[in-house]
Amino acid sequence: MDFLALIFCLYLLWGLFQALSLIAKRGKRSPSNLPPGPRPLPVIGNLLELGNLPHKSLAKLARTYGPIIKLQLGSVTTVVISSPTLAREILQSHDAVFANRTIPDTITAHDHHQLGLPWMPVSPLFRNLRKIYNSHLLSSKKLDSNRHLRSKKVQELVAYVGKCAHNGDVVDIGEAAFRTTLNSLSNTVFSLDMTDPSTSAKELKEVMWQIMAEVGKPNIADYFPVLKKIDPQGSKQRTELHFSKMLDIFDGLIKQRLQLRTQPGATTSNDVLDALLDVVEDKSEDLDISLVKHLFLDFFVAGSETTSSTLEWAMGELLRNPEKLSRAQTELHLLIGKGKQMKEADISRLPYLQATVKETLRMHPPIPLLLPRKAEADAQIGGFTIPKGAQVLLNAWAIGRDPAIWASPNEFMPERFLGSDIDLRGQNFELIPFGGGRRICPGLPLAMRMLHLMLGSLINAFNWRLEDGVAPGKMNMEDKFGITVQRAQPVKAVAVPV
Ligand code: HEM
Prior knowledge:
Helices cover 50% and strands 9% of the residues. By secondary structure, it is an alpha+beta fold. The chain has a single domain, classed as CATH 1.10.630.10. The termini are far apart. Bound molecules: protoporphyrin IX containing FE.
């Protein structure tokens, strides 16, 4: 049964629920001074207000009710924040109260909500894993030491586009970026390609797609927790199977590597797997193989689609704005040399390229509502009470498009960031595509290296035009909502060597 049909059935049970909730409400104190918001319907509350593109529907509601609004999503009280001032209150001033998350039911498969970093509550284990991410996996030193792995994958991307250019074939940018991101991640982690048919990694790619589709789909059990046991859409059951497949593949790759490490004269690969096995063997950090497998699951699910869809948006915006593309290319041609290979070490010398990536993430944050937070206690925010247990969503998309903060917010203007101090590291609350506070995205340094390197390489090596018949001004720039926001229409373009 699909999501809307289920909502309809629930609506028919309205009479029964209403009677029950009246009885329940009599004994329950609900804090006064709740944020404003649209009136909820019985039982389903404001679920229908979300529409197909919740970040846009919620931005519209914020224009009517203000930067803090309350919605009733089934039985889940939800507060949506849409201003930098209030985002700072949640992510900085009251960080401890809002550091935990509401958990989608699918994520409880294989206890991933307790073993996966994005979902586990703040605890000694959480702090330990964050430390491992920051020091052993994604520190500048570590990323510098394995940058050759990513560089090789980007060279392959350039070679692939070169071949398409030679044959006059159209390039599907999102598809090519996804393959490169996935292979960059899998080389950073395992020193192998996800798309290599000779490894189990190819299967990993397919399972990962299935996981993203499942976790991205709305699930009625998240809004009516009494339905969790029944799992009416079968979402959790399917996720169990996908997680099993993925964890088994990781298990195989870990066993192979452990065996390799016991061989005399074995050299380390300097990848994430070796770094983590060193930590496990060292026994000082309380990390075991089961946690390592869940960490890999997050690494791929959290890192691949986010990075590749951002690259596709960046190329889409540059193709729609040829004068910005030409300015970015001129910078690269002058500093790197036309058609020469760009390196990660060049990024800091390329202010316009950096501004282009920031501008893309301002307009198209791939997780527009960030990951949900949960109030651990009643909290006073913006003069209103957020009640204990409420889900809290931060609408990074609405903040990035607010005309009170950004001049001409719907125009792609990388120049706005030239000479500006605003960065993406969670200190400037008008630009928070990676979140902020103690749960800020730990993948940020890796994502930034991959984005700049892929984008810079693609535009330094080629001139680009849209596929025949599509004029820049007529491009479809609509979104499609899933686990990440993707383009409704893929960017397809023709490359010509510079
Ligand atoms: C453009 C690329 C990316 C974007 C926009 C992005 C965005 C985000 C956001 C919004 C959050 C939630 C932050 C919060 O609650 O305040 C998050 C969390 C997370 N991200 Fe990313 N991400 C990206 C790439 C990556 C990569 C490449 C990795 C891993 C290699 C990664 C791993 C994670 C993890 C593990 C968390 C959970 C952190 C926690 O809950 O403590 N992300 N990301």
